[in-house]
Structure formats: C-alpha cells, structure tokens
From TrEMBL:
Lineage of the species this protein comes from: Bacteria, Pseudomonadati, Pseudomonadota, Alphaproteobacteria, Hyphomicrobiales
Keywords: ATP-binding, Nucleotide-binding, Transport
Gene Ontology CC annotation, any one: plasma membrane
Native source organism of the sequence: Roseibium marinum
Name of the protein described by the UniProt record: Branched-chain amino acid transport system ATP-binding protein
InterPro entries, alphabetized: AAA+_ATPase, ABC_AA/LPS_Transport, ABC_transporter-like_ATP-bd, BCA_ABC_TP_C, P-loop_NTPase
UniProt cross-references to Gene3D superfamilies, sorted A to Z: P-loop containing nucleotide triphosphate hydrolases
Keyword Transcription: no
Length: 244
C-alpha cells in the first residue's frame, strides 16, 4: 500500500503557544489509525491544519503527493479529505435528505439532481438512516445526528476521513453500532484517522496509533505496543483522559 497522507514537520503556533510542534507521520491507503493524546495535546489543531480549517505556521501536508497546505477547506474537500467536528454540525432548518443533498451538491463535479437523490438514498442506507429522509435534522437523536454528519462527510466521496471524537458521548450499544459503521467505511476503502478517547473503540478499530503530548509526537506504531509504551502511559493513559 502506498502513502495516502504525508504530514511533514507540521507546526502551529498561537502567539507564544506551540499547539502542534514538528508533527510528522504518514498514513497508507486503506489504513485506520488513531491520533491519541491528553486534552490540549494538539490533536484537533492537527486535524484543522490537514483539512485547511486553520493555516499551518510551517510544515506541509500532502495527499497522494499533492500539497494541501495553503489551500482553503473547500479545495481540500474536493481533493478528497472529509472531516467531522467535535460538536456535531447539522443544517438544523433542513430535513435529513436536504442536509445530505447539500453535501452531495457541494462536490467538485456535482451530479444531476436525480443521480444526486439516488446517492443520498445510498448514503442514508450506509449510515443506517434509510427511510428517514423527511425527518427534521434538528429533531434527530444524538446518534442519528452523528449518522447524518457521517453521511454528509461521505457525500464528498473522500479518500481520507478525519473523525474528531465522533464516538464520544455514545452509550455502549450505540458505541458498537458506531464502531461497525466506521469499520464498514474502511472496508469500502476509505482511509481513516480517528481522534478518540474511547479506548475500546481504538482497540477494535485501529491497528495503528500515533500519540501526541504537548504538541509533539511521542509514539507511533502498533496500537497494542504504543499503549504499553511507558511514555504514553505516563502522559496519557495514567491521567483521566482516556475512556475505558
Ligand atoms: N484558536 C486557538 N487559539 C489559541 N490557542 C488555541 C486555539 N486552538 C487551540 N488552542 C490551544 O492549543 C492547544 C491544543 O489544542 P487542541 O484543541 O488541538 O488539543 P486536543 O488535543 O484536540 O484537545 P482535546 O482532546 O481536549 O480536544 C491547547 O492548549 C489549546 O488551548
């Protein structure tokens, strides 16, 4: 498998604070990896730079060899990177179908209306929302809002999906549904980077983990080994950050 994502020496400074400090890692096509670390270690800032929502202070991000750094979010989305946010973002005045249709039509080469509507139905099925087209987005339960957010991310046909604590706040049965959904997406060939604190989900989904602390990468490798690394245990697992 070739590298899909190549993050090189990525750095973000907010005034005197270096939130992400010389971060480098690569993701192979088809991989699912976790990006871990205590609160405030720079994970969301790293996702923001990869997806273009915040400019990097220095460093580069390449997707399939193409430079993403310096490009705006819509360009990066068109290049094949989709993301979800820590706080679910929905278009609350629209229904479920319209929310997803809007995302389909945001693509670089949007399909004709009929094809777009068929695609929406497929996306609804993929995330477990079949038959729910006409429901008001704002009245969906939390897990269903998450499903819809995922469908909106998938509408861009991403090569790389960045999930920022997408599983947070789910109860145990919802969590296993969520894990199943992510796993299905990966089986369809989507490469996934998961910022997550739910350790059961990380163990179930991610053969590989990258760990950050205070903006720096402190470990990168097979998840089981990384989670035994004394520095990771000291910085992350020993504290109250990770959720069993
Ligand atoms: N826009 C900003 N301006 C100033 N400082 C910021 C900004 N965004 C993030 N920070 C700081 O950068 C550091 C990294 O934050 P970030 O949100 O990336 O961490 P995180 O690892 O995602 O944390 P969490 O697990 O709590 O989401 C923190 O100290 C945070 O306060």
């Amino acid at each position: 498998m070739q590298d899909l994502l190549d993050v090189r020496n990525l750095t973000k400074r907010f005034g005197g604070l270096t939130a992400v400090n010389d971060l480098s890692f690569t993701l192979r096509q088809g991989e699912v990896a976790a990006l871990l670390g205590p609160n405030g270690s720079g994970k969301t800032t790293a996702l923001n730079m990869i997806s273009g929502f915040q400019p990097a202070s220095s460093g580069t991000v390449l997707l399939d060899g193409e430079r993403l750094t310096g490009r705006p979010p819509h360009w990066i989305s068109h290049a094949g990177v989709a993301r979800t946010f820590q706080l679910v973002r929905v278009l609350s005045s629209l229904n479920v179908e319209e929310n997803i249709l809007a995302a389909v039509m945001f693509r670089k080469n949007p399909p004709a209306k009929e094809t777009a509507q068929e695609e929406v139905q497929r996306l609804l099925e993929d995330v477990g929302l079949a038959g729910r087209s006409n429901e008001n987005a704002a009245s969906l339960t939390y897990i269903d809002q998450k499903r819809m957010e995922l469908a909106r991310a998938l509408a861009s046909k991403p090569k790389l999906l960045l999930l920022d604590e997408w599983l947070a706040g789910l109860n145990p049965s919802e969590l296993s549904i969520g894990i199943g959904l992510i796993s299905n997406l990966n089986e369809k060939g989507i490469t996934i980077l998961l910022v997550e604190h739910v350790m059961d989900a990380i163990r179930a989904l991610c053969p590989r983990a990258v760990v950050m602390n205070a903006g720096r990468k402190i470990a990168d490798g097979a998840t089981a080994e990384v989670l035994r690394d004394p520095e990771v245990v000291r910085a992350y697992l020993g504290g109250a950050h990770a959720v069993a």
